[in-house]
VCBS repeat-containing protein
Amino acid sequence: MDIVVANFNNETVSVLLRKDRGALNITNTFAAATGSLLRSFFVVDVNNDTLLDIIVCNYGTDNINVLIGLGKGTFGSKITYPVGLETHPGSITVDDLNKDGQMDIIVANYETKNLVTFLGSGNENFENLGTYSARFDFAPSIIAVGNFNNDGRLEILICGYYIIKFAVSFSSLTMLSC
Ligand SMILES: [Ca+2]
Ligand SMILES: [Ca+2]
């Protein structure tokens, strides 16, 4: 297995490929942006070419970066999608929210305590669907997607530093207690 590392202090993402006998070599390092204060990333194939891509969450610059994998630990130029001024996104996750076979992105904004969703089209392009209207009463720091209530539809679990509180149903954009 290879490893991807987000380097908070120097605002880069490093890809480490495992070589023979288990040694890890840094093959590529990608600069997010000055002041990005990147908080999290997600590794997934968003363009269905079987090569893993990376999506980076930039707390300081209020955006995300999509890096399309080219194989052998190399990636294309980063593509930037803003999530809103002073939102300070802290966490991202990826899944197919609308069941069209294409990966979509969910961003949890730490400062504005809400979510932004991006609809995938099977390539590097994502459509910003806007901000989920409900504000949470805590700053979301980690999010995850799953079928938590076993209804066959995806929900999202949102965690603050001291609390695990909500599952949001994307099918109806309603908040479920949990
Ligand atoms: Ca890919
Ligand atoms: Ca989708």
User: Anything to note?
Assistant: Residues 96-98, 100, 102, 104, 120 surround calcium ion (ligand 2) (CB under 6 Å). The chain has one domain: 3-169. The chain is about 0% helix and 50% strand.
